[in-house]
Amino acid sequence: MAERIDIERALDTLAGDESGFKFQSLAIVLAKLQWRELIACERHNDRGLDADAPASASPDGGSKGLACSTRGTLDKLKSDAEKVQKHHPDLPFR
């Protein structure tokens, strides 16, 4: 049986693992190749988006948003979509 200290260390390691953020950073860099006006959002409390661009900054006059996840579950997608619709009503959904 695992000792309590071993479990606490494992949880600390998981909390400190930034691999999801590395994936997010790569996704934003790749998306910016297509849409240069994208700006990365805060990593926490992102309101469902990982990068966005207001209509005023977009050459085509439309706002844009990027969401990505290493946990591509249906529940995660639904949760992010609800946040985006609530906090970014100007974004079209595709």
As a whole number of angstroms, the C-alpha radius of gyration is 17 Å
Which strand-content bin applies to the residues?
A: 5-15%
Mean pLDDT: 82
What general form does the structure show? elongated
Q: Largest beta sheet, briefly?
A: 3 strands, antiparallel
Q: Going across the biggest sheet, name each strand in turn.
A: 1-2-3
Unreliable segments (pLDDT under 50, ≥5 consecutive)?
A: none
User: Helicity range of the residues?
Assistant: 40-55%
Q: What is the CA-CA span between the terminal residues?
A: 48 Å
Structural class from helices and strands? mainly alpha
Number of helices: 3
Q: What are the secondary-structure elements, in order, as H or E? A: HHEEEH
Number of beta-strand segments: 3
